Amino acid sequence: MWFKKILSVLMVTVCLCASLCLTAYAEETDMYISDEVVPAYEIAHALYSDLSISGTRATYESRADGDDCVSITVTHTLQKYSGILWIWDDVENSTSEKTVNTNTVRLSTTKSGLESGIYRLESTFTLTSSFGSVETMTIYSSEKKVG
Prior knowledge:
Strand content: over 45%
Structural class: mainly beta
Number of strands: 9
Shape: elongated
Radius of gyration: 27 Å
Number of helices: 1
Low-confidence stretches: none
Mean pLDDT: 86
């Protein structure tokens, strides 16, 4: 009987010591947290892919800001949802491309005569830094409906 009491006291003591020895600290930072998930890149500072539709006319714009860039190339293409298993088809004659030798690029295009359906803009950016590093990334606009 006295053995069970000693064993119980010993187990309680070990559990208390173990719980008192565990301490956690959190580092406080001045970080802004938004409700968007945004990947981190070395060169690209901000990437945008915007689509607006009025009637059967689409206006679409791709923008990029980079840090220490020697060139930025942007290619954007209007895409239409095929209605089958998340397949998006490129809209004919809707692709544009632009290359600049600065830290910022902006490409704006319009396309008229769209058929009814769901559209999005695919924007692909290639940024080259002054130290030779190259980043290529593709982003998509929100989906818009015609008709």
